[in-house]
Specification:
Membrane topology: Single-pass type II membrane protein
Strand order of the largest sheet: 1-10-9-8-11-12-13
Helix content: 25-40%
GO molecular function: galactoside 2-alpha-L-fucosyltransferase activity
Distance between the termini: 39 Å
Low-confidence stretches: 1-48, 62-110, 430-435
Largest sheet: 7 strands, mixed
Structural class: alpha/beta
Function: May be involved in cell wall biosynthesis.
Main location: Golgi
EC number: 2.4.1.-
Strand content: 5-15%
């Protein structure tokens, strides 16, 4: 559903007509052609190019000078400041690396993009089987953080470990044989230990628990395998080079369990095993596999205790059942603190999901085609893209009109949507010279919702009232499925496409407590305006809050009164970096 309204004109579609090969071969010639003239004199261009060379040379040598004059620490600081500092959020101009940055004359200007995202992605993976991996950098608008050198080293080490231990390798076959022969005893000193991700809840929940499970694998030197059902079989590309992350179907038969039906409280969950003295007991062997129930019921809160982590380290296979982003709660495990600080140093705590989601989750070609076709057709020609994600929960449902008014109140509070004129000003805007030319600003508002009501109302607003300043506003909604159908692959593919379209927006308004919105803002690298839930079906007095951190909220952290043994955590550091969420006072999230 699409409509272009406001300001008296439609958004011009960008023309991708720059000759990249010619630019690389004869840059001076392309510059002359673009300006409508002839090739400039060689001498003048030569001077300009020499100035660029000297400028780049200064940038390259600056860290080296710092190293020799100020010492190693200062040189390291220069590198970090130069490459990994937060550059902008919401409205400030960040490291824009759009492959196609549109201009008002309808001509796009090519920008150099780093398709590896600063070394985050491994190079030389097959482009044909997964186009999104190396093309997504052309669509992201914000690159607020670069991965730390230590995180990059952990990712490369993980990839090597995954290649050694993945299904189809001799080490995996050995691990399966050991599991089959004795499921009640873990093998000591095994090279390959695994965490198996199991599907639970909706797509947003699944993506956040995947990222959480992957970070746990990085922290504990395990290998992440995913047990994907049919409804998720064609959503994500293989993320790791040279090996699969898919758990072979026969694993269910090896353990003698239907892992998709165990639910939150099976008798093989870690807490059940502890309660029945089948683990953490010197007189019994450590079982070969343990089920971790870390969903919203939080059955296995002991997982977040240091002494229990030491016990779980002995287990060869961990089966992860979760619908949460439980990363902030892992920071409370003192044994993980040093690794956390090195992977996400200083002010980089809020980059955890942002970086790991961009590394791990890449839509398949089927989904990527939906994303790029829609973006290139409806969004690419705009100067600014605003994503609005609306989710109505059963516990907080309110009438459509109330929700619409809350969205508008949030927009006014946070200055999100273009302002509209009143009726008396409409005629003035319509007759203003040049209000309909290509020099006016074009704004696209993307609506992601199960229902069409909000799209229709926002579209009507800009149809009935002009936007101030001659701004041309287009309102778009790719789908309105009416109900969530997680068990259907095509529904999930369309949902994933919308998550990535949100991730390619300049600014976001998302629904509080919505994992769909959490993933979208993490991929986008923005701090969204979060619509507060209508608890008790009452419209909140404050319509929304601007997120202080772009990290997702862990909606069900372990109980505060739970006592843990093991290494003492730095409570002051914990209180500084793990705080109550902006949208839910019982949840916690990472803050810088």
């Amino acid at each position: 559903m699409e409509m272009m309204t406001g300001g008296g004109g439609s958004v011009p579609k960008a023309k991708l007509d720059d000759d990249q090969e010619a630019a690389e071969r004869e840059p001076w010639l392309l510059a002359a052609t673009a300006s409508g003239g002839h090739a400039p004199e060689r001498e003048t261009k030569g001077k300009e190019q020499w100035r660029r060379v000297l400028f780049i040379g200064c940038l390259v040598t600056l860290p080296l000078i710092a190293f020799f004059i100020l010492g190693r620490e200062s040189a390291s600081a220069v590198f970090q400041i130069a490459s990994a500092k937060l550059t902008s959020f919401n409205g400030a101009s960040g490291l824009t690396t759009n492959a196609s940055q549109c201009h008002h004359d309808g001509v796009s200007k090519k920008k150099v993009v780093d398709e590896l995202l600063g070394g985050l992605l491994p190079p030389n993976m097959d482009r044909r089987t997964c186009r999104s991996r190396y093309e997504s950098s052309q669509y992201y608008k914000h690159f607020p953080y670069a991965a730390s050198p230590y995180l990059l080293s952990k990712l490369r080490a993980y990839e090597a470990r995954h290649r050694r231990c993945a299904p189809g390798t001799p080490l995996y076959a050995k691990a399966i044989d050991q599991l089959r022969s004795n499921p009640n005893r873990s093998v000591e000193s095994t090279e390959c230990r695994y965490i198996v991700w199991l599907p639970f809840d909706g797509l947003g929940n699944r993506m956040l628990s995947m990222v959480s499970g992957f970070l746990y694998a990085l922290l504990t030197d395990r290998v992440l395998l995913v047990d994907l059902p049919q409804d998720s079989s064609d959503l994500f590309c293989e993320p790791f080079p040279g090996a699969t992350w898919l758990l072979p179907p026969e694993f269910h038969g090896v353990v003698g369990l239907d892992l998709f039906r165990l639910g939150p409280s099976p008798d093989i969950s870690y807490t059940s095993l502890v309660a029945s003295n089948r683990i953490k007991n010197a007189t019994v062997a450590t079982p070969a596999y343990v089920y971790l129930s870390l969903g919203y019921q939080m059955t296995d809160g002991l997982f977040f205790c240091g002494d229990d982590q030491r016990e779980l380290a002995k287990v060869n296979w961990l089966l992860l059942y979760s619908d949460l982003y439980f990363v902030p709660s892992m920071y409370a495990v003192a044994e993980f603190n040093d690794e956390f600080r090195r992977m996400f140093p200083g002010e980089f705590k809020e980059s955890a999901c942002h970086l790991l989601a961009r590394y791990l989750l890449h839509p398949t070609n089927a989904v990527w085609g939906m994303v790029t076709r829609y973006y290139d057709t409806y969004l690419a020609g705009s100067d600014r893209r605003i994503g609005v994600q609306i989710r109505m929960f059963g516990f907080g449902s309110i009438p459509v009109n109330d929700m619409y008014n809350q969205i508008l109140a949030c927009s006014r509070q946070e200055h999100v949507f273009p302002e509209t004129t009143d009726d008396d000003d409409d005629q003035d805007v319509a007759t203003t010279p040049n209000s309909n030319n290509n020099n006016s600003t074009a704004v696209a508002i993307l609506i992601a919702s199960l229902y069409p009501d909000y799209y229709e109302r926002i579209r009507a607003t800009y149809y009935e009232h002009a936007a101030k300043g001659g701004v041309r506003v287009g309102v778009f909604q790719p789908t309105h499925e009416e109900r969530q159908a997680t068990q259907m692959l095509f529904h999930n593919q369309k949902a994933l496409a919308e998550i990535y379209l949100l991730g390619f927006c300049d600014e976001l308004v998302t629904s509080g407590m919505s994992t769909f919105g959490y993933v979208g803002s993490s991929l986008a690298g923005v701090r969204p305006a979060i619509l507060l839930p209508a608890h008790g079906h009452k419209v909140p007095a404050t319509p929304c809050r601007r997120a202080v951190s772009m990290e997702p909220c862990n909606l069900t952290p372990p109980r505060v009164e739970m006592e843990c043994r093991g290494k003492a955590v730095d409570k002051e550091d914990l209180a500084r970096h793990v705080k109550v969420c902006e949208d839910y006072d019982k949840g916690v999230k990472f803050f810088d």
